[in-house]
TrEMBL record:
InterPro entries: YkvP/CgeB_Glyco_trans-like (IPR055259). GO terms for molecular function: transferase activity. The lineage of its organism: Bacteria, Bacillati, Actinomycetota, Actinomycetes, Geodermatophilales. Residues 253-336 form the Spore protein YkvP/CgeB glycosyl transferase-like domain. It comes from the Bacteria. This is Glycosyl transferases group 1. It comes from Blastococcus aurantiacus. Keywords: Transferase. The keyword Transit peptide does not apply.
Amino acid sequence: MKVKLSSTRFAGSLYYRATEPARAVNEAGLEVQVTLSYGLATRMSGPAEDESSDVISVDADGADVVVLQLPKTKPALQILRLLQAQGVAVVVEIDDLFSGIAYGHMGFATIQHHNVAHWIAACAREADLVTATTPALLEEYARHGRGVVVPNAIPRRIAELAPAYDRPEPETVTVGWTGSLASHPYDLQAMESGLQQGLDRARRASRFTILGQAMDAQQRLHLPEPPIEVPWKDTVDEYLSAVGELFDVGIAPLRLDRFNEAKSWLKPLEYAARGVFPIRSNTPDYERLGLGMRAKRPRDWADHIAKAIDDGDRRREIAARNREVVLAQHLTEHTAPVWADAWRRALDNRVRSQRIGA
């Protein structure tokens, strides 16, 4: 079976939901050949920049299945229909709840202006199959029953890097967060005063570091001094490597809202894979993963942070145990058969649909 994956350019989605799954499936010997491209070759009725132009033909490049990653435009829906008319099965791959984007998110205005939530939902309704990162996303986008959850997973080469807990015990323990206040405008505030309380209560020296964009984190968290800011890395592999080199404790706070309750377990999974001790919110997927220490209230954050800073033996023991779970259950080689089975199911659905329509 030949699968063509038309990918997004968003680095995280591209890495975890396209590049690495394709690599894992191709290496697994599952009789599935996966190729990637940014977009598909199409012919338009007019200039592509003209919103009145329609897609009148699309080249599937010999694929039996085409995966449209985050299709969120009218042309994407037209491409889906044209491919299906050729007998090509179409999978829609989704990893975020676009109807639940927070007002303060940097992309909120663009998403609203281009009616992204409408178009991605329309594509999902007509797809032969929807793949998603979480059950909540599947409930939103695959109410027709043609859907599969394929959880996020970590490449073995990343999980086998030297883990954070193997470093000598530091004089100053680093509590870290990965992200940007531009795309996570309210999540750090879910801790309220818990972060600073934990740092203050710990007997040992500690510091707070953000890998990404700190922006106004100091003001939002009422910190006495700004966090250390380490800029984003050029590649996801470099970013994941840096997580284990910089952090001893990783925090994953999320405000409980529709968007975050549909969000995948990725951040605690990354921390666990790199041997970092995770502390995380109690969102559905974080709970499903089950790794890391659950924090519901500011005092939970304070307690877990202070204990993680002061008790290095416990921190390393739990981090090592979490990493073993990742190695045993959450690598891309574990999800490769799930991806392949989903794509086969999409093809079966297309064949069945054509027989019914014949």
